[in-house]
């Protein structure tokens, strides 16, 4: 995991400008938290706490775990000044496979395909097992996952403003000059970002992740004796179709018979947000492909 840590530390300032502003999954967590009303939330691979302001609307205790000490430091400093609801917020600098706490949570979050940052199936299974051991009996693990980031094939450099990412960011974020590129090398699913003008490249960062198929994820949940329920195949109303390439769903103990799926889908339909997390589907929807 040292490769991933060094890459993320190098790119911590980039999170401030772009990635910490990603909003494509906000409505998912806003609706889920309003329905389930968890009083305690644990997020694995939390970064600087991008989702924490949403969590704070209901939860009184929020714990975030991340491998990057720089991102943890930024998150701690931000929420020290911006904890308007006085929630108990704790950041822990460790990996999601080995952490141990004497606490259990109402909701545990794996957002934005964070399990892809683990290299082996053994690590992913261990992370899911660890999550289960910290889950209250009536709680839920929410997993938002796709096997490939942005595209399922390698690409050349793509301008952010002409890609799916443009719909993920608030209009206030300046994206001129930013580009992304995909490189798939065996099981490695590598995402590169850079800032480039007509003269030179001023900034470039690489995120190395690893392919983790949805069938493998479901198998791992079954091995851990966790029930799972697919909610959506994509963010927003596009996730009601079978075209989406994501697993957005919930896992829970078998004795937990409550399902928030119906209420959540009602809200998805009412919001009518249309987003894509796959570049080919985005272009097809825009009539470009």
UniProtKB/TrEMBL annotation:
User: Could you list the residue ranges that cross the membrane?
Assistant: none
Q: Name one Pfam family in it.
A: Methyltransf_25
Q: Which residues are in the Methyltransferase domain?
A: 41-139
Task: Spell out the molecular function terms from Gene Ontology.
Answer: transferase activity
Q: Which UniProt keywords apply?
A: Transferase
Task: State the superkingdom.
Answer: Bacteria
* InterPro entries assigned: Methyltransf_25 (IPR041698), SAM-dependent_MTases_sf (IPR029063)
Spell out the protein name for this chain: Methyltransferase domain-containing protein
